[in-house]
Write a structure and sequence with these properties.
With 281 residues, the protein is α+β, with helices and mostly antiparallel strands. The protein is built from six helices and 18 strands. One of its GO terms (biological process) is carboxylic acid metabolic process.
């Protein structure tokens, strides 16, 4: 199953995607959110007769972020072997975890806004895990799939000056408004195998990142289990699982985003998202 939210900013409605059509399910649930997922919204929709519900073509509609106001965005750094090599960093012995402001989340095709004065705004394609059930102190990674709602595309935009040169934690360079386009839909865990998916990122038609999730240092199940050892995960929480080689920072000299460019981000089995880069005004 694919779930999503479509509509103008602030007017998104929950839908199920079937082919080129979106089925409105807001007569069954209030939204795709932490609160509705905790109350069994996914199970309610799966059990419903969707053929009786109104539907529309997906073409011409704006996609919103597939989860309404997620309470956490958790990120895993240095988690692709190729990316570790291009940065020259030591291979982590445990997952590198940091947070990103949930308000950085925007719709999958919304604009990426470069902060005032920034000359080091970078792109990062990532597979995002969306949590479906509360998870705390899982006994082993094999329990993780039961807690995962599904997977979606995340563009983990990063401002490298604030991330690297301004001391402290990486959250500084990750949390600007619009710095996490996500979507277009969530593919539920029973519909996709996340362990060997192609993921890529193009800038103005030039392929910058092109890898597969089998290059992950720490796999999907391990990540969820590991985070649950020190943080409670709730339905709707998003985990950005890391980015592969090819980021702008990795070029010599670095090659960063600027206004007027178009970023296309894709993951096999999920789809593509396209963001226009603009300056802050």
């Amino acid at each position: 199953m694919r779930i999503a939210r479509i509509g103008g900013v602030g007017e998104e409605r929950p839908v199920v995607i079937e082919g080129d059509e979106a089925i409105y399910v807001d007569t069954l649930i209030s939204d795709w959110s932490r609160q509705s997922l905790e109350s069994g919204s996914l199970e309610r929709v799966k059990a419903a007769n969707l053929s009786t519900l109104p539907r529309t073509s997906i073409h011409g509609h704006r996609y919103g972020a597939p989860i309404f106001r997620p309470t956490k965005v958790i990120c895993v750094g240095l988690n692709y072997l190729g990316h570790i090599a291009e940065t020259g960093a030591d291979t982590p012995k445990e997952p590198v975890i940091f947070m990103k402001a949930p308000d950085s989340i925007v719709g999958p095709n919304d604009d990426i806004v470069i902060p005032p004065g920034s000359t080091a705004t970078d792109y990062e394609v990532e597979l995002a895990i969306v949590i479906g059930k509360r998870a705390l102190y899982l006994e082993n990674p094999d329990q993780s799939p039961d807690c995962i709602l599904g997977y979606t595309i995340s563009q983990d935009v990063s401002e490298r000056h604030w991330q690297i040169e301004r001391s402290g934690q990486w959250v500084k360079g990750k949390s600007f408004p619009t710095f996490n386009p996500i979507g277009p839909s969530i593919v539920t865990g029973d519909s996709i195998d996340p362990n060997n998916l192609r993921l890529w990122c193009e800038v103005d038609g030039v392929m910058k990142q092109d890898s597969r999730t089998d290059d992950l240092l720490f796999g999907i199940n391990h990540i969820v289990w590991y985070i649950s050892q020190f943080m409670e995960l709730f339905p709707g929480d998003i985990i950005n699982t890391g980015t592969p080689f090819g980021v702008g920072l990795g070029f010599k000299p670095p090659v960063y985003l600027h206004s007027g460019q178009v970023v296309r981000t894709g993951i096999e089995g999920i789809g593509e998202i396209i963001s226009r880069v603009i300056d802050y005004k």
